[in-house]
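Notebook, bench 3.
Goal today: get a predicted structure for TetR/AcrR family transcriptional regulator from Pseudonocardia humida so we can plan the truncation constructs. The sequence was checked against the plasmid map this morning, with no discrepancies at the termini. Length recorded as 225 residues. Pasting the sequence as submitted so the record is complete.
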Amino acid sequence: MTDPVKTPGRRRYHAPQRAEQAAATRRTVLEAARALFTANGYTATTVGQIADRAGVAVDTVYATVGRKPVLLREVFETALSGRDVAVPAEERDYVRAVRAAPTAAGKIAAYARALTAIAPRTAPVQAAIRDAAAHDRACAALDAELADRRAANMRLFAADLRATGELRADLSDDDVADVVWGMASAEYYLLMVRRRGWTPQRYGEHLRDAWTRMLLADPPATGEA
């Protein structure tokens, strides 16, 4: 009895491995784009330079992320999320931590801790967007969109603080949101860290202390949250 003839079959398509490789390529492209955008500026950076730094072809940059405006947006969104993809606000760990904290001081402390980790990634990208906004319509639109989004999120944060019953009665939610919006901005972070030499940790602790003193009706003793 002879063995049946084996016909050559197609090599199995390893979807998980291919997906892993694609994710790694995307990550490399975004890291290259972030480095160049923040060092040289958006306008001066070309997709070809990003491809060269990432070690891929220009077509690969387009296929894995997109054209230059899309690259800039994705660089910001991934810097904000700390992951390879954008994450909706309500799904971010720090937002959940803020909402779960039972006191206003605890919510402020949770948000200040989050900014200590996030601002070093996002502030240089936001500065690049702001600089490019004066000359590029797509960047101007992105800058305005992000500013509006931040302002809306700050109002949600203010409302969350208000729900504890611990805010000063003479401050409206808009007052609280504006204070937090301004001090959590990229400009303020870069001023204190790059210009004044603060560490991100000192910046975060400064926000926690300042917001606690400025916004709460009865601030807890130093160090309490």
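The mean pLDDT is 90. The domain at 15-85 is CATH 1.10.357.10 (Tetracycline Repressor; domain 2).
Flagging this for group meeting.
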